[in-house]
Specification:
The protein is an alpha/beta fold and about 325 residues long. The protein has helices at about 15-25, 45-55, 70-75, 85-90, 130-135, 155-165, 200-210, 280-295, 315-325, and strands at about 10, 30-35, 40-45, 65-70, 95-100, 120-125, 140, 170-175, 185-190, 190-195, 240-245, 255-260, 275, 305. The structure holds threonylcarbamoyladenylate and magnesium ion.
Length: about 325
């Protein structure tokens, strides 16, 4: 177990980037900001480092990781791009889009990171700190969200610290992230498929492709019996407190996660109330979502009532994460 490590926290800057690259090369685990959420990085070519990463997060090893690279040229060394994939990469990288593609014959990403699949998930992040680290390190970096498996994803360095202090080597603090929900994942199969709604709205992807994205089958199982996006199963973004969606009123003892300018019945008794966006802005709501879920969860309310959130733009990703947070657990 790598519990008991001394986890340093460095403010983003040249020294932090150099230390991050040094630790990654030595097989270490480094958390850094991306534009979507904080990631927990390891050398994608180092199976021992990846094994430590799964262990630090408590993540099942059948749930594959995203390889992060600095540019399209680096991505093409690890996966094969068809025309649709090229168009998506050229339009949206760097940015909050992950592509699932067939591996190249000499794909350097360790099999452990791809859970034995023939495909690999790749993304080119736009956050300057992530880019500097990828550039200094020079190899692909696998990076899941930097939370304990099953917790909500971290949008600040403090969230990372509360989940992973003592389990990883370094946290690079680049302040709060901008987008706040994880990248959209598109499987570049015969027809491009939206495997996970995320920080790039479906409408923008479909406009570029000139066609609707396919939906994953209900049970998420592909022909191989492998889930198409294995991490999307079950309750993946779960606070401990019960989450009640589509609330039209607040019940006694509940906290309220509000959206928009309107009040609902019972709001005066809610403890506490946090509003994702008073002005009804879905981008602002996405950026606040995980932090507010963490904060409300810490208040020990009977349940968290959640007001309806519109489904357009980033609303699809917000509603997806809320639905997962609301799955009943034992
Ligand atoms: O915004 C993001 O994507 C963040 C930042 C850190 O880049 N990362 C992130 O990673 O959300 P993670 O590990 O929390 O989620 C990765 C998702 C999982 O649902 C996993 O099952 C899926 O990507 N995935 C990875 N490789 C795959 C593959 N070959 N086929 C299908 N799904 C895959
Ligand atoms: Mg995650």
């Amino acid at each position: 177990m790598n519990v008991g490590l001394k986890t340093s926290i460095l403010p983003a800057g040249e020294a932090a980037v150099a230390e991050a690259a040094r630790l990654l090369a030595a097989g270490g685990l480094v958390s850094f900001p991306t534009e979507t959420v904080y990631g927990l990085g390891a050398d994608a070519t180092n199976a021992a480092a990846i094994a430590r990463l799964y262990q630090a997060k408590g993540r099942p090893a059948f749930n594959p990781l995203i390889a992060h690279v600095g540019d399209l040229a680096a991505a093409r060394r690890i996966a094969r791009f068809d025309a649709a994939a090229m168009a998506l990469a050229e339009a949206f990288w760097p940015g909050p889009l992950t592509l699932v593609l067939p591996k190249t014959g000499d794909c350097p990403v360790a099999d452990l990171a791809t859970a034995g699949l023939e495909t690999v998930a790749i993304r080119v992040p736009s956050h300057p700190v992530a880019r500097q680290i990828l550039c200094a390190f020079g190899r692909p970096v696998v990076a899941p969200s930097a939370n304990l498996s099953g917790h909500v994803s971290p949008t600040t360095a403090a969230h990372v610290q509360s989940d992973l202090a003592g389990r990883i080597d370094l946290i690079v603090d680049g302040g709060p992230v901008e987008v706040g929900v994880e990248s959209s994942i598109v499987g570049c199969f015969e027809v491009p498929m939206l495997l996970r709604p995320g920080g790039l709205p479906r409408g923008e992807i479909e406009r570029l492709l000139g066609r609707p994205l396919a939906q994953p089958p209900q049970d998420q199982a592909g022909d191989s019996g492998q889930p198409l996006a294995p991490g999307m199963l079950a309750s993946h973004y779960a606070p401990r407190t019960r989450v009640r969606l589509e609330a039209k009123r607040v019940e006694p003892g509940e906290a309220l996660l509000a959206f928009g300018p309107d009040a609902i019945a019972g709001v005066d008794a809610a403890t506490p109330v946090m509003n994702l966006s008073e002005r009804g802005d879905l981008d602002e709501a996405a950026a606040r979502l995980f932090g507010y879920l963490r904060a409300l969860d810490a208040r020990g309310a009977r349940a968290i009532a959640v007001m309806p959130v519109p489904h357009h733009g980033l609303g699809e990703a917000i509603n997806d994460r809320l639905r997962r947070a609301a799955v009943e657990r034992d």
